[in-house]
Amino acid sequence: MNLFIIGDVHGCFYTFSEMLKRWNPATDYLIQVGDLVDRGAHIPETVELARQLNEQYPESTTFLMGNHEDALLHHFSPQGPYPGWLNWGGRSTTDQYKRQPKLLARHLPWLEQRPLLWQNDHVLVSHAGLADIPLELALDRDSSDGILWRRGPLRRLPQLQVVGHTPMDDGEPIHDPDSHTMYIDTGAVFGRNLTALRLSPTGDVLDIIMLPVNPDDLPDKSRYSHLTPR
After folding, report:
1. What's the rounded Cα separation, in Å, for the pair 230 and 218?
2. For the chain, how long is the longest CA-to-CA vector?
3. Which residue range or ranges hold the Calcineurin-like phosphoesterase domain (predicted)?
4. Predicted confidence (pLDDT) at residue 226 exceeds the cutoff of 70
5. Which residue in 140, 172, 178, 127 sits closest to 157, CA to CA?
6. 86: which DSSP letter?
7. How confident is the model at residue 228 (pLDDT cuts 50, 70, 90)?
8. From CA 119, how far away is CA 108, in angstroms rounded?
9. With b meaning 16 or more CB within 10 Å and e meaning fewer, what string describes 159-187?
10. Residue 162 carries which DSSP code?
């Protein structure tokens, strides 16, 4: 199967739904790079759509862990809140789930089960990528240079890396030739685009799809104007 890889969604339910119309379950394996939650206007609905798809197509969908899912899980666990999470996206999530507590109870165990990466011999997909540091640290969910949080150069692998996490200012995906990495967080929730790549199983780019964000997905700027990027 080809790979259909979607970037950071952040509660942009209508844009995500429109992107999914480009996915063919018969021919494409769907991978989403994490950060379904926080910031956008329809977070519980976005997570529920992903959960249902994962339940319906368990053999052809993978939804990865993002740093925002990790922070959400910290908030609702005995570990306690992740420092600053409410100010860089979490308040929108907690406000929306207060209106749908049954969905929160359903979503927390599903989110906890999200894997850190998906790979074959030619492609490795994760949220923020593998840095050129010891693998134990690179796979540490809590490390600032780990696979959920890394900002900066990544290691060059035998595979093509595909990552989200770092929003592209111009709303277009880029390829870093030094690390052979595709960056596909194109800032949908910041008013730019949601991007998907269709790759061959061997990592050849077959298609790049960029959808402008649906304005109905954007947060109430008067209410969440304090949001800071993480």
Report:
1. 18
2. 46
3. 1-176
4. no
5. 178
6. G
7. low
8. 25
9. bbbbbbbbbbeebebeeeeebbbbbbbbb
10. E
